[in-house]
Specification:
365 residues; alpha+beta; FAD/NAD(P)-binding domain; three-stranded antiparallel beta sheet; 20 strands; 25% strand
Length: 365
């Protein structure tokens, strides 16, 4: 949608082929439905890719400031929160979709819904075919997503369109997703804490952060866990600090004031306290569990629950405007590329940045 707006504003005739029955369904679910469109702490260190130098160059051309300018040029106001996450003032992601739909209509961009492209070929012009339709084009921007959240239509089938032109696809895995753990601690399901988490691999720290942790029937969820999922691999140790703002000496004084699970009153939720006391049995072990609670990551909840796909078409197979090195006029944007970001607006920023680069390249076609 962003790429179409940018091209149409420059006088290009644009057609959007949308697999689903409505534009922007995945966008409408971002930021827990509040529309976290970007982040003011924007640089390539928040991304994973085969070419972070190219990501950095792309962000230098179109970063969070340009994204906000683009969105506000269509209407609305966008504001950062205390963590730099930028939302529409009304905190409604569906309204961001409505902005795009209104602007696309104003620019007379043709929208074809229910048009899943089955075949993309080139014989001097690009030829696109879908069930019930076909068309030719001078340039094509392939922005069909990855494999995450297939209920939005992103089931991975679009990679075949790129492979037909000689492109490869790196190994794919789900990111920004709930993690499965051993032990599962099913009795803690639904308990939420504001804690800290480290991801340890062979004793080496590969991630550390603080925030929301939610215990689920088979593992962990929450904003902090989604952030950690971009780093964690099966077999890693997830070490939780359930009271990151309380030093161990102060904690030990509190634990000496009660007996059994009552030692943990007003420290952690009661259900969590009972489970920890049952596992520990004495004050020293209990204090260690509260500050260094180890769980082993046994997997994720898969692409069906993931917000983002890790992996995709290598940036090395594209030029500076994300044009295919194998076929001039074929561009890529968004999650189909081997670039994903941390939780907090970084993946939508990549969508907008890559849309801008592809539009700039397509203008020359």
């Amino acid at each position: 949608m962003a790429c179409a707006v940018l091209l149409a504003r420059r006088g290009k005739s644009v057609t959007v082929l949308e697999r689903g029955d409505r534009l922007g369904r995945k966008l409408a679910a971002t930021g827990n439905g509040q529309g976290n469109v970007t982040n003011t702490a924007m640089d390539a260190s928040h991304y994973f890719s085969d070419d972070l130098e190219k990501v950095a160059g792309a962000l230098a051309r179109f970063s969070d400031r340009e994204t906000v300018c683009l969105l506000e040029s269509m209407g609305g106001v966008f504001l950062p929160d205390e963590r730099g996450r930028v939302y529409p003032a009304g905190r409604q992601a569906s309204a961001v979709c409505d902005l795009f739909r209104r602007e696309l209509a104003r620019l007379n961009v043709q929208i074809c819904l229910g048009a899943q492209v089955r075949e993309l070929s080139y014989d001097g012009q690009f030829r696109l075919r879908w069930d019930g339709g076909q068309m030719c084009a001078d340039a094509v921007v392939l922005a069909a997503g990855g494999k995450a959240s297939p209920h939005f239509g992103t089931d991975g089938t679009a990679y075949a369109l790129a492979r037909a032109f000689g492109h490869t696809v790196t190994p794919l895995s789900p990111a920004l997703v709930r993690l499965k753990t051993e032990p599962a601690m099913r009795e803690l399901k639904g308990i939420r804490v504001d804690g800290a988490l480290k991801v340890l691999r062979g004793g080496r720290e590969v991630f550390a952060g603080g925030g929301d942790i939610l215990f689920t029937e088979g593992g962990l969820s929450g904003d902090l866990v989604f952030r950690a999922s971009s780093y964690a691999k099966e077999g890693d140790v997830l070490e939780l600090d359930l009271l990151p703002r309380v030093e161990e000496e102060r904690l030990m004084r509190a634990l000496r004031s009660g007996t059994g699970a009552e030692k943990l009153l007003c420290l952690v939720p009661n259900g969590l306290g009972r489970a920890l006391w049952k596992r520990a049995g004495d004050d020293g072990a209990l204090c260690t569990l509260l500050k260094h609670f180890p769980l082993t990551m046994s997997g994720t909840y898969g692409f069906g629950e993931a917000q983002v796909t890790k992996g995709g078409i290598p940036l090395a197979e594209t030029d500076g405007n994300l044009q295919s090195v194998f076929r001039k006029g074929l561009f890529f944007a968004g999650e189909i590329l081997n670039t994903d970001g941390e939780c907090g607006g970084y993946n939508l920023q990549w969508a907008f940045t890559s849309a801008f680069l592809a539009a700039e390249g397509a203008l020359a076609c």
